[in-house]
Design a protein that fits this description.
Blueprint lengths: L1 H10 L9 H9 L8 E7 L6 H9 L5 E4 L7 E5 L4 E7 L5 H10 L2 E5 L8 H13 L3 E6 L7 H18 L5 E3 L3 H13 L13 E3 L2 E6 L6 E9 L11 E3 L3 E3 L1 E6 L22 E2 L7 E2 L5 E5 L26 H13 L12 H4 L17 H16 L5 H5 L10 H27 L8 E2 L7 H4 L33 H14 L10 E10 H8 L5 E4 L7 E10 L13 E5 L2 E6 L1 E4 L5 E5 L8 E8 L6 E7 L5 E12 L4 E15 L3 E5 L5 H6 L5 E3 L4 E8 L4 E6 L9 E8 L3 E5 L24
Parallel strand pairs: 1-4, 1-5, 5-6, 6-7, 17-28, 24-28
Antiparallel strand pairs: 2-3, 3-4, 8-19, 9-10, 10-18, 11-12, 11-19, 13-16, 13-18, 14-15, 20-25, 20-27, 21-22, 21-26, 22-34, 23-24, 23-25, 26-27, 28-29, 28-33, 29-32, 30-31, 30-33, 31-32
Helix pairs in contact: 4-5
GO molecular function: GTP binding; GTPase activity; U3 snoRNA binding
Family: Belongs to the TRAFAC class translation factor GTPase superfamily. Bms1-like GTPase family. TSR1 subfamily.
Organism: Serinus canaria (Island canary)
Length: 762
């Protein structure tokens, strides 16, 4: 039929597109004698899906041999010498979402088992959302059962299921799975369909363990060498490169062996033979190891001079950056620069150099004082002082500080008593003012503390004339954790050059399709215990620099199925490409500027950038964010992709201090409740003010000693307006990276498998 189709296209003048020889060879080798077995991961999408019956039908192929996997994985291999194909089927434990995602990272095809009536339940919908967000390899849809339904109900159920599938799988074909003939058609479809490649595994070696053995070290029985056996996939394996065990961390290899292939397509296999005795023997110790009758060949051993280092952090030098005495050359260079920038200024006779430095030329004076409002300022001074005196603040302290007496007079004592009474009224008015504006506060608006001076509480903050254009040095005031990370001078160029180098160089080592045993060094015994429990053991090779820690930025969107509030710096679980880890991220706006505003919560209506400390990963790579609930379940909260590896990305936290206009004049106003002492007003005097109704201004001077201040604006204020002062501070993520992710509780597979969200409001 294919040739007839090609001839019809040729008669119509349509030329066939050239097929890449590499892609064609890869498709032919998959599942053949020269390539790895076709890895099929069986995913149950409904609690009523008949998984065991489907697997029995797949095993009952004419002339096929079945090989059971070692350990507790529960998978099996299917060898068909007549078709010259071999498959390996693996089923994840029911309800283990992380196991399904890990298996999908290395699978050649996914086999979804559906219910003949409903298709999938809510837990299956959640699983499909995660798989689509991570990246879906080739797949097939199988529907076992349904034969017990009446013919009319069977047709209606088929139509209903087809409509349901069109939304998720527009081009998918349903395969009934009730007879051996239907199972044969399904196997042919799996072997002949077009393979979909995941971007994050295109340039890496990956392997799914078929057998494993743990050899404790002499020093401790908790750490040892893990011998992992499986088929090489993706690229050729080099013993000197590092490997990452998903969910457990990065490790080095000491040796690579080449045992006999336990899934060899032997044409002399007798029909119905379940296990070949001359190929493999189960170890009596029960530790999942496989002993071959033939001698195991050592392919290669690691070379310490060429082996990649496991160093993931920089060891900080406490003396680095210490101030040293300048040399004579540096002093001469500084003096020359001062001479070059020296300017001539006319000063009165007898003025010193220090006094002359403060004298400003007429041309350098700003236009701020040329607005014609000086006369208005002079006229308003008396009115200002009268307004402040009504609140109990001394007019004598405002007029002349030099005439104050060191001894307290009786009249001053009376004045303080009157002020204390006024202060009680002022406190009541302040509380009433806070309650009235509670619903009108901005998200970043905070109240100035009364017990701590504002200049101390907000000493790490600064004012910016313009958030977009004002400069901010990315190397300024970095935290201690930044001394532990690595940074590229140009990450994009490094990634481009590295990928070109991988394409040009031919890796010496185990080729794709070889059955090998990897000796992984210094592995904790918990990895072997996890494998015995039935968890998949997935290994990925690391590209250069991917074991080093840096700052990763992900572009994500909130998942529509989750509405629980997620606060910044809250611990989340990440599936980033081939990695799985825990970290506490920051959320910030996604803009093209050099500064990005911090978001306190993960917003549902916009794409945000998530920033974490994590090992370097070269994009493209998908990312999934999970949150562990109090009952142990892991909820998908956001999906996206890796944006960049950039520690210089500036995330800015904004605070807004607010004040109330007490007395309003033409362009002047007395503002209170923003500060509560004179020193704070002087400290924040250079910062620009703005109002909620769009006015801009600045602080002229403090009035009294309790935080009142005279302010000038570009227009007259309204009594309902609020005066704001914006402060900014750069923030950094918390260093909580942990490659060990706790196992979630199993799903409650029912019609309401996902419980209602428990929203905790603070």
């Amino acid at each position: 039929m294919v040739r007839r189709w090609e001839r019809s296209r040729a008669r119509a003048g349509i030329q066939a597109l050239p097929v890449c020889p590499q892609v064609l060879a890869e498709k032919r080798n998959l599942g053949s004698r020269d390539g790895p077995p076709h890895l099929v991961v069986v995913v149950l999408l409904h609690s009523r899906a008949a998984a065991q019956d489907s697997l029995r039908l797949l095993q009952s192929q004419d002339g096929a041999a079945v090989r059971a996997d070692e350990g507790g994985a529960g998978g099996f291999a299917l060898l068909c010498p007549r078709l010259k194909q071999r498959w390996r089927f693996v089923t994840a434990q029911a309800g283990d979402l992380h196991a399904v995602l890990d298996l999908a990272k290395v699978a050649d095809s996914l086999l979804f088992i559906l219910d003949p009536v409903d298709g999938w339940d809510s837990a299956g919908e959640h699983c499909l959302s995660c798989l689509f967000a991570q990246g879906l390899p080739s797949y097939a849809l199988a529907v076992p059962g349904g034969t017990d339904l009446p013919p009319k109900k069977r047709i209606d159920a088929r139509k209903k299921l087809s409509k349901c599938i069109e939304k998720r799988f527009p081009e998918a074909k349903l395969f009934p799975l009730n007879t051996e003939q239907e199972s044969s058609l399904l196997l042919r479809h799996l072997s002949s369909q077009k393979q979909r490649h995941l971007a994050f595994r295109a340039r890496r070696v990956y392997l799914l363990a078929r057998a494993a053995e743990f050899v404790p070290s002499q020093d401790s029985h908790l750490v040892g060498t893990l011998k992992v056996s499986g088929f090489v996939r993706g690229q050729s394996l080099n013993v000197n490169s590092l490997v990452h065990i998903v969910g457990h961390g990065d490790f080095q290899l000491s040796q690579v062996d080449a045992p006999p292939d336990p899934l060899s397509l032997n044409p002399r296999v007798v029909k119905g033979q379940k296990r070949s005795q001359d190929m493999e023997v189960q170890d009596d110790s029960g530790n999942g190891a496989v002993e071959m009758e033939e001698d195991v060949k050592v392919l290669m051993k690691a070379d310490p001079s060429k082996q990649e280092s496991l160093q993931s952090e920089v060891v900080p030098d406490p003396m680095e950056g210490e101030q040293t005495w300048p040399t004579e050359e540096e002093l001469q260079e500084a003096e020359d620069s001062l001479k070059a920038n020296r300017r001539v200024v006319k000063v009165p006779k007898g003025t010193s150099k220090y006094q002359a430095a403060w004298i400003v030329d007429d041309g350098e004076e700003g236009s701020e004082n040329d607005d014609g409002d000086d006369d208005e300022d002079d006229d308003m001074d008396d009115l200002m002082e009268e307004a402040v005196s009504q609140e109990g603040e001394s007019s004598e302290e405002e007029e002349a500080g030099e005439e104050e007496s060191e001894t307290m007079t009786v009249s001053e004592c009376l004045r303080d008593d009157q002020y204390d009474e006024k202060m009680e009224e002022d406190e009541q008015m302040l509380e009433r003012y806070k309650q009235e504006r509670m619903d009108e506060m901005f998200p970043d608006e905070v109240d100035t503390p009364r017990d701590v001076p504002a200049r101390v509480r907000f000493q790490k903050y600064r004012g910016l004339k313009s958030f977009r254009t004002s400069p901010w040095d990315p190397k300024e005031n970095l935290p201690r954790d930044y001394a532990r990370i690595f940074q590229f001078q140009d990450f994009s160029r490094t990634r481009k050059n590295l990928f070109k180098q991988i394409e040009k160089e031919e890796t010496e080592g185990a080729s794709v399709g070889w059955y090998v045993t990897l000796h992984v060094c210094n592995v904790p015994v918990s990895v072997m215990e996890s494998f015995k429990e039935g968890k998949p053991l997935v290994l990925f090779s690391l590209l250069p620099h991917e074991q080093k820690m840096s700052v990763l930025n992900f572009l994500v969107r909130r998942h529509p199925g989750n509405s629980e509030p997620v606060r910044a710096k809250e611990e989340l679980i990440f599936h980033c490409g081939f990695r799985r880890f825990r970290a506490s991220p920051l959320f910030s706006q996604h803009t093209s500027a050099d500064k990005h505003k911090l978001e306190r919560f993960l917003r549902p209506d916009a794409a945000l950038v998530v920033t974490v400390y994590a090992p370097i990963t070269f994009p493209p790579a998908s990312v999934l964010l999970f949150k562990q609930r109090s009952n142990g379940m892991h909820d998908l909260i956001a999906t996206g992709s890796l944006l960049s590896v950039d520690p210089d990305r500036i995330v800015i936290k904004r605070l807004v201090l607010s004040g109330h206009p007490f007395k309003i004049f033409t362009k002047m106003a007395v503002v209170r409740y923003m500060f509560f002492n004179r020193e704070d007003v002087m400290w924040f005097k250079p910062v620009e003010l703005r109002t909620k109704w769009g006015r801009r201004g600045h602080i002229k001077e403090p009035l009294g000693t309790h935080g009142h201040m005279k302010c000038h604006f570009d227009g007259q204020l309204k009594s309902q307006d609020t005066v704001l002062l914006n402060l900014y501070k750069r923030v950094f993520p918390k260093w909580t990276y942990d490659p060990h992710v706790p196992e979630p509780v199993p799903w409650v597979r029912s019609e309401s498998a996902l419980p209602e969200q428990e929203v905790e409001m603070e």
